[in-house]
Amino acid sequence: IVGIVGALEEAGQNVLCTRARPEQVEAVMARVPGLEHNPAARTLRKIVRPRDPAPGRALVLCAGTSDIPVAEEAAVTLEFLGDRVERAYDVGVAGIHRLFEKMEDIREASAIVCVAGMEGALPSVVAGLTRAPVVAVPTSVGYGASFGGLAALLGMLNSCSGGVAVVNIDNGFGAAQFADLILRRR
Questions:
Q1: Given its phi and psi angles, is residue 54 left (phi above 0), alpha (psi -120 to 50 degrees) or beta?
Q2: Region of residue 85 (left: phi > 0; alpha: psi -120 to 50; beta: else)
Q3: How far apart are CA 157 and CA 59, in angstroms?
Q4: Crossing angle for the helix pair 22-31 and 2-10, nearest 10 degrees?
Q5: How far is the first Cα of the chain from the last one, in angstroms, to the nearest whole number?
Q6: Tens digit of pLDDT for each residue in 63-105?
Q7: Predicted confidence band at 145 (pLDDT cuts at 50, 70, 90)?
Q8: Angle at Cα 32 formed by Cα 29 and Cα 34, nearest 5°?
Q9: What is the model's pLDDT at position 26?
Q10: Is 118 helix (H, G, I), strand (E, B) or coil?
Q11: 146: Cβ contacts below 8 Å, ≥ 6 apart
Q12: What's the CA gap between 33 and 35, in Å, rounded?
């Protein structure tokens, strides 16, 4: 990883590392100056040549605080790609009043990344409240019979609300890539 990041930096390329473990962060940052580390997202990044911003704005929502690492991975990736991003965390259906407090952000978003574990209900609810495309990300966290995110994945795949696309379990990076495509096609 140190060699790859060093080669990218020498070539004047932007750098984004996801799922960086603490020992990897330490090794890379010791060799490559100027990297930004986001411990919540577990990312390292350096933007040498920023992209032009996409039209519109992405909104990253997560149901609970245990979903924040995956949500932050998505948000950091969207920012790396040059997108404008808003965040609203801990707005799950167990306390749905918190989601309703974010209705203005939901209505104004051009694409929404919605991260949730447990039964994965948040993306279906959000898609019913907006005309924006919703990229659903199941997480591997949750109590009871979450089966490592499989329960949330199946719940999201079975959403009765239209406009929901689902990525794999814990795939904040893939969700951000898809949301960026949506924003850049506007």
A1: beta
A2: beta
A3: 20
A4: 40
A5: 35
A6: 999 999 999 999 999 999 999 999 999 999 999 999 999 999 9
A7: confident
A8: 80
A9: 95
A10: coil
A11: 117, 118, 140, 152
A12: 6
Amino acid at 146: S
Tokens standing for residue 50: 């920023």
Q: Which residues in the chain belong to E strands, given as ranges?
A: 15-17, 36-38, 43-46, 58-62, 85-89, 111-116, 134-138, 164-166
DSSP type of residue 48: S
The strands making up 43-46's β-sheet, listed across from edge to edge, are: 15-17, 43-46, 36-38
Surface-to-core class of residue 34, CB atoms within 10 Å of its CB (0-12 exposed, 13-18 middle, 19+ buried): exposed
- Rounded-to-integer distance, Cα 179 and Cα 177, Å: 6
76/80 Cα distance (integer angstroms): 6
